Amino acid sequence: MTNPSGAGTSPASSHAARPTPGPLVAGSDLGRYTDASRAAAGRVIAAYSTSFGLACTLLGRRVREHIRSVYALVRIADEIVDGTAEQAGLDAEARAGALRALEAETYEAMTTGFSTNLVVHAFAATARECGIPRDVVEPFFASMAMDLSPGPLDDAQQRTYVYGSAEVVGLMCLHVFVPRPTPEQVAGARALGAAFQNVNFLRDLAQDATLGRGYLPVPAEVDRERDGVAHPGDVGAGALDEAGKAYWLGRIRADLTAADTGIALLPRDVRGGVRAAWLLFSALADRIEATPAADLARTRVRVPHHVKAGLVVRALLRERGGSRP
Length: 325
Description:
CATH superfamily of the largest domain: Farnesyl Diphosphate Synthase
CATH topology of the largest domain: Farnesyl Diphosphate Synthase
Radius of gyration: 19 Å
Shape: globular
Helix content: 55-70%
Number of strands: 0
CATH class of the largest domain: Mainly Alpha
Number of domains: 2
CATH architecture of the largest domain: Orthogonal Bundle
Order of helices and strands: HHHHHHHHHHHHHHH
Structural class: mainly alpha
Oligomer: single chain
Number of helices: 15
Largest sheet: none
């Protein structure tokens, strides 16, 4: 799976600045604390994402808690930049400071193996055990910082943002799945992350517009039905037209196709969970395609719970039973 044109990328297979594992003895004080931190990370995910929770149940036990720990840190960073911190009364400067503090605490914990922040501790334990390098984590925080200065993005900025906010999260998960990812697996993880993020941008068009964000620039050749000039600012105002929607769905479908190939390269005990996520986002893309572009500015498209459950079963049958969708 891949978006090789993502700007500012670093190779996921790099082992520079890899965390050094520390002792983690079952039944020790550190082991008990780490278990508690992973339980806390699981509670965070359960509170925020039914889709992810469903997909995670299909992952093998050896990776399930690690993946929850990765996504819990991602969720906490999102809450700093996406409104929760602002609702708590933090102004822009304070939110930026909170994000910097979280980033610094994460790197410190990756080095020392300990944090008083349970979510950070859980992530650091996973990073150290699975070899998630700092050069995969840094772009994530850089993209989160971009959200603190909202505005419409051009194509290069959008690719950089998606690499840091989504593709590297896929790479973190890949390090959990396999100790030394191949270039083909790296490409697959990146494409899956990009597809998921761009689907989210289409789904959340209305909400992002209220925050002054424009994540979906449309090339001029797609935008000729107006005046032949790209209007990324219009997307920030929630005014994506049918041509723009089709353009982004085309990019998403291409990444989903690349990701589909990459899933087959993953270990058997994780393919079911990744396949479930792939099916869930493919279904969401289908529903977005069936929704008029004008409605996306007012409505958040969802996949009903009973459909999600059916897709999880379908993923299980395909990856464990060998059937095709």
